[in-house]
Amino acid sequence: MRTATISRKTSETSIAVTVNLDGTGEYTISTGIGFFDHMLEQLSRHSLIDLNVKTVGDLHIDQHHTVEDTGLAIGEAVARALGDKKGIRRYADALSPMDETLSRVAIDISGRPYLVWKTEFTQKKLGEMDTEMVEHWFHSFAQTAGVTLHVETLYGTNNHHIAEAAFKGLARALRQAVEIDPRKADAIPSTKGVL
């Protein structure tokens, strides 16, 4: 089983994350930010990656450390669960429609962290979550997961739908990219021989 558990404790946050890349999309999420929990639940359910997250952060200050550090911990857990990445499909993309919104997410599990973000929000909060933290979560996840990630809202007007389509798009792309390719299950998907 491709699993990993990460414990991350700083003066700002205390985080425990467990992932199972070969799961069924089961999750237990608690970050103290309701909308953020909802997005991580979508990530788990639609990627079929089992995800357990318990974050206690300094929300009396703001949401920055909680969202950032949770992204870093989940990304690190995914990278660790992937191991040497032998046999994975590596590349994937997904179109994610949600009512009037359509998002496109493309991923390369490259070992080279990079985020291209072409998504904007027209309101400052979704529930109690600051919308500016959505991009920051994707950035943090890409950094420690070691993935190149492109996220673009092709069109949409409802801010909830825009955020959710991005998380669901990541989920669908991640699901494909981490799958073992039966045609090359014994090989690293790179001419370098390492990712």
Note the topology.
Layout: E1 3-9, E2 13-20, E3 27-30, H1 34-47, E4 50-57, H2 64-82, E5 91-98, E6 101-108, E7 114-118, E8 125-126, E9 129-130, H3 132-145, E10 148-155, H4 159-178
Parallel strand pairs: 3-4, 7-10
Antiparallel strand pairs: 1-2, 2-4, 5-6, 6-10, 8-9
Helix pairs in contact: 1-4, 2-3
What's the gyration radius in Å? Answer: 16 Å
Helix-strand pattern: EEEHEHEEEEEHEH
Average pLDDT level:
97
Give the low-pLDDT segments: none
Number of strands: 10
Span of the ends, CA to CA:
20 Å
Tell me the overall shape. globular
- Report the portion of residues in β strands: 25-35%
Question: How do the strands of the widest beta sheet line up side by side?
Answer: 1-2-4-3
Structural class: alpha+beta
Largest sheet: 4 strands, mixed
Q: Count of helical segments?
A: 4
Helical content class: 25-40%
Pathway: Amino-acid biosynthesis; L-histidine biosynthesis; L-histidine from 5-phospho-alpha-D-ribose 1-diphosphate: step 6/9
Pfam families: IGPD
Protein name: Imidazoleglycerol-phosphate dehydratase
Subcellular location: Cytoplasm
What does this molecule look like?
With 195 residues, this protein is an alpha+beta fold. The chain is 34% helix and 31% strand. It has helices spanning 34-47, 64-82, 132-145, 159-178, and strands at residues 3-9, 13-20, 27-30, 50-57, 91-98, 101-108, 114-118, 125-126, 129-130, 148-155. The strands form three sheets. The chain has a four-stranded mixed sheet with strand order 1-2-4-3, covered by helices on one side. A four-stranded mixed sheet has the order 5-6-10-7. The longest helix is centred in the C-terminal third of the chain and has 20 residues, at 159-178.
